[in-house]
Amino acid sequence: MNVTIVNFKGGVGKSMIAHQLITGFGFEGCEIDPYGSLSDRLPENVSRIDVREKHLNPPRQETIFDFGGFDDIKLDQAVAYSDLIVIPFIPTLETIQGTMDTLVRVAAMNKPILMVPNMSQKENDINDAKFVFEETLGFEVEMFPIPMSVALQTAINENKSIIELSKQGGIKAYAYKKGANLMHRLYEKIREYENH
Ligand SMILES: Nc1ncnc2c1ncn2[C@@H]1O[C@H](COP(=O)(O)OP(=O)(O)O)[C@@H](O)[C@H]1O
Ligand SMILES: [Mg+2]
Fold it and tell me: Could you tell me if the CB of 16 is within 6 A of ligand 1?
């Protein structure tokens, strides 16, 4: 299966999620984000598509498209190849509009959408965002919240899968267990959308 992770807004966790799905579960990556650095971090597994490129080749292996920063025809192509669209966002009033633009843009393409409220401080903010999205779209959206996690940030900084880190011995591994479990659950959730 292929998955498009998209939000025109930066800093919402697209590349963190892409990085963990690629390093933890064997996906390939395709970076379509002029501001991104995922392909520099994982040069073996992630290809980089130039902004001026007009065509996206069909993926040969299961691929995560990390799409951000701008909007063009390649978003339609990535979504057409994908079984699921994942939209990470920060559930605060200031950033919800940018996410809404992304959501409205991709909702027209009739692919399932999984919203990922990331680094949220309050449960209420997630519920408020869900309400705003569903009011605007007119249908229900599934949410998979990811909390702020020092363990996840450490995995990213070390350019490793949090699952790999959680398999080390000792007290340190314990700190990564929670984040590793979360990534397993996200992976299972994504697989639910395979062939749909
Ligand atoms: N749940 C999280 N907990 C801790 N740090 C996170 C979390 N999600 C993302 N980050 C960090 O926040 C920063 C921005 O995330 P990133 O994935 O680069 O966003 P995007 O690709 O949408 O621009 C990165 O340093 C990333 O590692
Ligand atoms: Mg990014």
Answer: yes
Closest by alpha carbon to 59, among 77, 34, 85? 77
CA of residue 134 to ligand 1 center, whole Å: 25
pLDDT digits (tens, 9 = 90+) for 103-156: 999 999 999 999 999 999 888 999 999 999 999 999 999 999 999 999 999 999
Rounded distance between C-alpha atoms, residue 54 and residue 185, angstroms: 35
Report domain extents, the chain.
Answer: 3-191
Element (H or E) spanning 52, and its range?
none
Specify the CATH class of 3-191 in words. Answer: alpha beta
For ligand 1, atom 15, the nearest C-alpha belongs to 13
CA of 33, closest atom in ligand 1: 21
**pLDDT tens track for 4-31:** 999 999 999 999 999 999 999 999 999 9
